[in-house]
Amino acid sequence: MQAMHLSARVGRICESATLRVTRRALHLKAEGVDVIDFGAGEPDFASPSVAVEAARQALADGFTKYTQNQGIPALRLALTRRFAERYGAPWTAEQALITVGGKGALFETALALFESGQEVVVHTPAWVSIPEQIRFAGAAVVEVATRGADGFAVDPDRMLAALSERTRAVILNSPCNPTGGVIEPEAIAAIVAGCAARGVLVISDETYERFVYDGLAPYSAAALAARYPETVVVVGSFSKTYAMTGWRLGYLLGPKALVDAAAMIQGHSTSNATSFAMKGALAAVEGAEPDVERMIAEYEARRDLLIPKLNALPGVRCLPPRGAFYAFPDVSACFRPGRNGSIAFAERLLDEAHVAVVAGDAFGSDDHVRISFACSRQALAEGLSRIERFLGAE
Ligand code: PLP
Predict the structure, then answer these.
(1) 50-287 is classed in which CATH architecture?
(2) 10-46+290-392 maps to which CATH number?
(3) Residue 96: φ, ψ to 5°
(4) What is the pLDDT of residue 289?
(5) pLDDT tens-digit profile of 329-348?
(6) Which residues contact 310 (CB under 8 A, 6 or more apart)?
(7) Which atom of ligand 1 is found nearest the CA of 205?
(8) How far apart are the CA of 323 and the centre of ligand 1, in A?
(9) By mean pLDDT, which of 8-12, 68-72, 110-114, 204-208 is the weakest?
(10) What is the best residue among 79, 152, 207 to mutate for testing ligand 1's pocket, by most ligand atoms within 8 Å of CB?
């Protein structure tokens, strides 16, 4: 029999390493192994009850048909109002698209904008799907490396120096998965101004917008959209902010021509995001702020428990992340024969200590592993003592 011929497009990408770890951890769990899962980037909180109730009511009311391709108008309006109130963004509901997760918004944006011969500038370490989506769309990824020693700071001059005649867009991710780094508002402003002058788009992935600590105020590139309406594109998600990962809802905000193109792609792929889920999301935007604030406070408390203990482990170095819910420690001093490099390290940790982390290699940094603190304090304590025993057992 002839081997299946897959497209060259598919050949340009590989499986999401974060999903792979989750699958392996799930497999062990199914075998009855007590796994501490620091791998998944998934809130351990229940979705807000206002969202659950609204979705339940929508189902009971028969709100189960296709909706407008761009998403229900009330949700698009609520989102643009929120961005206007918080950041002075000028967007109308026609400039908002509700997508199947933030992932869907980024994917449709990549398909709408990028093609072969073009470049997209990304700061690394980067969330796994960003470079894969760029390559899938046919463009090349230009990486600008950030370093753990300065909290993975993004330097606007280095980002702008990476632009070429072929650059179509810069993708920013602040707070960043996996590093927890937060890009300073001044740095974002400098990048947007530099890109606007060159006709390059800035796509700001703000999936973790609300998750900032140490009294930092959340910031969005939306604050620059009135001044640079043709440059600023914002992607967001209901997944992390509202602990609604399985609802699969995200959004795209930006220039109408881009939003229309992404909507057209969506029209030929998923049609629309799930009808009753959007009703739940609307209730979340309108009424789940207390839930969001409670979750953020708890993540910060967990971070404050985790980071000193991580740094007390022999060979582990980690500055406190200023945002998101990931620690990205440098564990290279713990590498030994048999657990050399982040992949072997993570695999041995899972197999021997039953602790799931994601190898930094997946994000473009082989010295690190990603530890999600979107899990209970109890799980954090147990996982840390397992890691300590694992590191002690030379
Ligand atoms: N962007 C970043 C940086 C992420 O970490 C994620 C999820 O992990 C997403 C986008 C997409 O999230 P979702 O598709 O669940 O909205």
Answers:
(1) 3-Layer(aba) Sandwich (3.40)
(2) 3.90.1150.10
(3) -125, 135
(4) 97
(5) 999 999 998 888 998 999 89
(6) 316, 318, 327, 329, 371, 384
(7) 1
(8) 14
(9) 8-12
(10) 207
